[in-house]
Amino acid sequence: MINASDKDIVVAANVTKQFGSLKALNDVSLAIPFGAVQCIIGPSGSGKSTLLRCINQLEKIDGGAIWVDGELIGYRRVGDELHELSDAEIARQRLTTGMVFQRFNLFNHMTVLQNIIEGPLTVMKRPRREIVAEGMALLERVGLAEKRDSYPIELSGGQQQRIAIARALAMKPKLMLFDEPTSALDPELVGEVLAVMRDLAASGMTMIVVTHELGFAREVASDVVFMDKGEIVERGAPDAVLVAPQHARTRDFIAAVL
Ligand code: ADP
Ligand code: MG
């Protein structure tokens, strides 16, 4: 059996996920090294979101296994048996990953700074003074320090998404998951969010990015996966998959997106 490895932050081995009779993930295996930017592309309904949601345990898998940062997720091995982890243990494991969604999911009744310090304050129970300083540093990093006292509704979609990224980073994740983070944005706001993601990648953060921004994928990805119908159809270097794909399904998808 494939097992946790020292160089990979995520190892998925023969993962299946069903919704009723639908196989949203069908025997998916994927290893992602520390520091990698793994882009995932594929048509709507191909299982991209489901894969991210399984990696951070928003969904339970039906078959196979996933290791994140060296730990089998969701289960503990006792002899030959697997025992399900408690909710508290799962919550602890989930702290390894931060996630940014297509919709910004900010707390609308809180200011920008409150949004960012909420997790460290209530989940990690860290002292306010310390996390306010860290929160401000994160706001600088995403270029929105002057918005600390604004409410989400006062910000553009691009600004809200940059805050969502800062909020995820405030929990100091080892792995960041992005699920089509620019798909809900007006075209003129896409660039500012991609710029923040590019900086994050350059800083060495390990990232899994589901995106239709093929230019970004080609420039920033260390590796690209094309999924279709719950399966990994093709995987390789960005130029190999995006410019000279081997599979007709990949070619058709890229032609449709461009
Ligand atoms: P993608 O992100 O690539 O568009 P998804 O992972 O969202 O695809 O969905 C994969 C398949 O699983 C789709 O057919 C979708 O309708 C189905 N699916 C996803 N989530 C659920 C759910 N909670 N209940 C039932 N079906 C779901
Ligand atoms: Mg999706």
From TrEMBL:
PROSITE patterns, per database record: ABC_TRANSPORTER_1 (PS00211), ABC_TRANSPORTER_2 (PS50893)
Highest taxon of source: Bacteria
The keyword DNA repair belongs to this UniProt entry's keyword annotation: no
Keywords per UniProt: ATP-binding, Nucleotide-binding, Transport
Stretches assigned to the ABC transporter domain: 10-254
GO molecular function, one term: ATP binding
Transport as UniProt keyword: yes
Gene3D superfamilies the record matches: P-loop containing nucleotide triphosphate hydrolases
PANTHER family hit by this protein: AMINO ACID IMPORT ATP-BINDING PROTEIN, PHOSPHONATES IMPORT ATP-BINDING PROTEIN PHNC
Family note: Belongs to the ABC transporter superfamily.
Name of the featured protein: Amino acid ABC transporter ATP-binding protein
Origin species: Bosea caraganae
Lineage: Bacteria, Pseudomonadati, Pseudomonadota, Alphaproteobacteria, Hyphomicrobiales
